Each structure stands twice: as structure tokens, then as C-alpha cells.
TrEMBL record, chain A:
Name of the protein in its database record: Trafficking protein particle complex subunit
GO biological process: endoplasmic reticulum to Golgi vesicle-mediated transport
Localization: Endoplasmic reticulum; Golgi apparatus, cis-Golgi network
CDD domains: TRAPPC5_Trs31 (cd14943)
Organism from which the protein derives: Mikania micrantha (bitter vine)
Subunit relationships: Part of the multisubunit TRAPP (transport protein particle) complex.
Automatic annotation (TrEMBL), chain B:
Oligomer and partners: Homodimer.
Matching SUPFAM superfamilies: Ligand-binding domain in the NO signalling and Golgi transport
Domain of life: Eukaryota
Full protein name: Trafficking protein particle complex subunit
Annotated Gene Ontology cellular component terms: endoplasmic reticulum; Golgi apparatus; TRAPP complex
Matching Gene3D superfamilies: Trafficking protein particle complex subunit 3
InterPro entries: Bet3, NO_sig/Golgi_transp_ligand-bd, TRAPP_component
GO biological process terms on file: Golgi vesicle transport
Keywords recorded for this protein, A-Z: Endoplasmic reticulum, ER-Golgi transport, Golgi apparatus, Transport
Family affiliation: Belongs to the TRAPP small subunits family. BET3 subfamily.
Function: May play a role in vesicular transport from endoplasmic reticulum to Golgi.
Length: 203, 186
């Protein structure tokens, strides 16, 4: 089959110029695709927790790639090595590229030192989703939580990331909060220089 | 109210809400990867992607008709043009060209030079039998079925398999006469 008759020209991804990331597709096109992702995964699980985990896995795969892409394109091949730096990278750069806007807020948890929250009034993936009553607290934002975890993990900040609905006074729809709980090994001294980054001492 | 005028693909695309194509591309990639892990057989993945596309197609046609104001096409040739110029543009932001008509006018090819599904994609040796964009063929088939056209949609050329373009062959099998579920006098 291969090479029969005409010349085959396999393109190597790395030989192609990197796109500027300005191309767009319609939001509904994305929504159809996302809905198929959710529906397919529903057929593969027995419970809500499992469904969220699978969506998170799918998101993780996106996060890994987003980190690599954006560090190269937006940050001149540098990546953040500080906790607050990477959090603000997720909240601003990643959000802006993926969802067209900076996330509504980034806050530090009040009860635990190692918790941070990114909140969004209307998360893009939840725009056209209403969760049936019998599915309880299920939140499709698990996909976005996975993206966040993928970015953080691969930047050297392992964390547990989950998505939650939080009711807002006077609003019909709840907002979605992405809760980030950093892993224990990121205790304070390590927060300053995590990951296998090479550095030189200048003195 | 004056009859609505059909709108061009560009005009519709300019007016709908849009998202970054990279989010779309990477999400699609995640879906394909998940299917490959779950189903293992490339053939099964092709089938599942086609099924997902079909599910999308049968829903997407409603939005397409509502936003495009397209009226009934006189023949299959017009249908193909509308899919290529309005349908693809409106959802994916790219247009296709229509060629390779057979003499009866029931089989043609949609050629995509730009395809937002495949940015960053390269097929590994283990996935050579994969029709990576098979979801698109399902979408076209599903959407046309909802407007009474049974079609067979197959990939003829695929850039991920070393061809110079994406070529989707659409073959009209039969027109299903419209059946009304209600009687006239009701």
C-alpha cells in the first residue's frame, strides 16, 4: 500500500512552522465535540467519580501539550519555576489562549496554606451543559481541572486539582471553582526552586 | 417578515461565538488518544469516531439550517457546494472545494487543504490504519441523513497518511422520501 504508485510525503510536525494560535473554530463546534467526549465516557464508567476521573485524564493530556506549546510560543522557551509564577501563568496565559479571557479570579485558600482556587463565573466547557439531578455534584469542569493539573504537574508542581460548583448569591447558575491542592513534597523551601531546572550560581 | 436571505459562510462565522482552534484540536486529540487506549483496535476507533461524528451531525444540522437560512437545494451538486462553502466554514472556520464529480452528479469529493483537527498531529507506526479525521465523515453523513439523503462518506486522501490534501468522498445512495408523521386533515 505505502509507496504504491505515487510519492507519499509524510510531514513532520516539527518541520512545520508553529502556528501563531490565532485560528478559531465556532464555539458550538467545540461544544458538540466536548459533549461527545462526555457522552462517550459516560458509557465507560459505573459512577460519577470515575467519569470525572476520565474527563480529568483527557484534560491532563491537553494540559501537558498546552504547557509545552505556550512555554515555547509565549514565554520564549522559559517556564515558570515559582509557585506563584506558574499559578499566574495558568490563570492568565493559559486561560487567555484556551478560553479567550483571563480567569475571573485566583485566590489562596484561607484554611490551608497549600490550596489555591481559580474561579470562573461561566466556565467555557459548562456553557451548554446542565447536569441532571441524579448525577449529583458532577461537574464537567473536571476536564479543565485536568488541563490545570497537566500544566502544573509537568512544570514540576504536582497537585490534586478538582472542579466544584459554588452557588453565587442572586445568580441562577453556580460558578465553577477549580481547587488546586499542591502535593506535600512541595513544602516551603522547595517551592522556590522545584523541578529539574538547571541553574548557575552567580557569586 | 421578508423571506430570509441565505447567508454566506464567512458572514455566519464572523457572527458566531468562536473559540481558539488549539483548544479544539487538542481536545479532539485527547478523544482520539482515549479511544485508542480503550478500544485498542484501530478499526474500532475508526468506527467510534464515525459514530461520534454521526451523533454530532444529526444535531448540528438544526443549528446549520437555523443560522444559514439555506433553502432546499435543487440537486446534490448544490448540496455539496453548500456543505463545502457554508457548513465547513460556519463550524470549523475553513472552506472546502468540491471536485471529482461523476457523470450522474451523485458522487463528489470535498477537498480540505486546511484542517483544524490535525495541527500538531503525526501518526505513529502503530496507527497507520487510523482515519484520524473520521469524525468529519460521520458529521457529514449524519447531517445529510437528517435532510433525507442517505450517503456514504469515505476518505480518499489523508495528509496524515502522506497525501497532499484531505479528500472526503461523498456518495449519494438514495433520497429518502419525506414521510409526514401527521395527516393533512388534522
Amino acid at each position: 500500500m505505502i509507496g504504491a504508485g505515487k510519492m507519499k510525503q509524510y510531514t513532520n510536525v516539527l518541520d512545520k512552522p508553529l502556528s501563531k494560535g490565532r485560528q478559531e473554530v465556532s464555539l458550538s463546534g467545540f461544544a458538540y465535540l466536548f459533549s461527545e467526549l462526555v457522552q462517550y465516557n459516560q458509557t465507560q464508567v459505573d459512577n460519577i467519580g470515575e467519569l470525572e476521573r476520565r474527563l480529568e485524564d483527557a484534560g491532563y493530556a491537553v494540559g501537558v501539550r498546552v504547557l509545552e506549546l505556550l512555554c515555547h510560543r509565549e514565554k520564549g522557551n522559559r517556564r515558570e519555576t515559582r509557585l506563584l509564577g506558574i499559578l499566574s501563568f495558568v490563570h492568565s496565559t493559559v486561560w487567555k489562549v484556551l478560553f479567550g479571557k483571563v480567569a475571573d479570579s485566583l485566590e489562596k485558600g484561607t484554611e490551608h496554606e497549600d490550596e489555591y482556587m481559580i474561579s470562573e463565573k461561566e466556565l467555557l466547557v459548562n456553557r451548554f451543559i446542565s447536569v441532571p439531578k441524579d448525577m449529583g455534584s458532577f461537574n464537567c469542569g473536571a476536564f479543565v481541572a485536568g488541563i490545570v493539573r497537566g500544566v502544573l504537574d509537568n512544570a514540576g508542581f504536582p497537585a490534586v486539582v478538582t472542579a466544584h460548583f459554588v452557588p453565587v448569591d442572586g445568580q441562577q447558575r453556580p460558578r465553577t471553582t477549580i481547587l488546586i491542592k499542591f502535593a506535600e513534597e512541595l513544602s516551603l523551601p522547595l517551592l522556590l526552586a522545584p523541578g529539574p531546572v538547571s541553574f548557575c550560581v552567580l557569586h | 417578515m421578508a423571506p430570509a436571505v441565505p447567508r454566506s459562510g464567512d458572514a455566519i462565522f464572523a457572527n458566531v461565538e468562536r473559540v481558539n482552534a488549539e483548544l479544539f484540536t487538542l481536545t479532539y486529540g485527547a478523544i482520539v488518544r482515549q479511544l485508542l487506549t480503550d478500544l485498542e483496535e484501530v478499526e474500532e476507533v475508526n468506527k467510534q469516531l464515525d459514530q461520534m461524528g454521526y451523533n454530532i451531525g444529526i444535531r448540528l444540522i438544526d443549528e446549520f439550517l437555523a443560522k444559514s437560512n439555506v433553502t432546499r437545494c435543487v440537486d446534490f451538486r448544490e448540496t455539496a457546494e453548500v456543505i463545502a462553502k457554508v457548513g465547513f466554514k460556519m463550524f470549523l472556520g475553513v472552506t472546502a472545494s468540491v471536485t471529482n464529480w461523476d457523470t450522474e452528479g451523485t458522487c463528489c469529493s470535498l477537498i480540505l487543504e486546511d484542517n483544524p483537527l490535525v495541527d500538531f498531529v503525526e501518526l505513529p507506526d502503530t496507527c497507520q490504519g487510523l482515519y484520524y479525521c473520521n469524525i468529519l465523515s460521520g458529521v457529514v453523513r449524519g447531517a445529510l441523513e437528517m435532510v433525507s439523503m442517505k450517503t456514504e462518506v469515505t476518505w480518499v486522501r489523508d495528509m496524515l497518511r502522506g497525501d497532499d490534501a484531505f479528500e472526503l468522498q461523498v456518495k449519494l445512495l438514495k433520497q429518502i422520501p419525506e414521510e409526514y408523521p401527521y395527516k393533512d386533515d388534522e
